[in-house]
Write a structure and sequence with these properties.
mainly alpha, 5 helices
Length: 121
């Protein structure tokens, strides 16, 4: 699989996750230890989900390496900002380390895939 295909796959996976959370916010909320009974938390999860859907589609459908670089940059910034927000929001909670690691890790994976794709294509 070429580096460009891997980056597109990462974008498609992000978009699929975003769509899944938009339909079922508990997929994001419960691993953080939050109930999905709160309409405000569901709305926040869906906002994040639609951002992930859009940025993932941007990566998956980028027509040029330059466009992929921009889409990947947005994706990475989003993931690292999620990690920062979760680090603060989950302070003192047992879910904190895992939630921050998943958000930051996904940013690193997308960033590495995007960087490799734009350097080789």
């Amino acid at each position: 699989m070429t580096a460009m295909r891997i980056a597109r796959f990462m974008g498609a996976a992000t978009a699929c996750y975003g769509l899944a959370v938009a339909v079922r916010p508990a997929l994001l909320l419960r691993p953080c230890g939050w109930s999905d009974d709160d309409p405000a938390r569901r709305a926040l999860a869906r906002t994040t989900a639609f951002r992930d859907l859009a940025s993932g589609l941007g990566m998956a459908l980028a027509p040029t390496p330059a466009a992929l670089r921009i889409a990947t940059g947005g994706r990475v910034i989003s993931d690292f900002s999620d990690a920062g927000v979760l680090a603060v929001a989950l302070r003192g909670q047992p879910q904190r380390a895992r939630a921050v690691a998943v958000a930051a890790g996904w940013g690193v994976l997308c960033g590495a895939a995007g960087l490799a794709a734009t350097r080789t294509e």
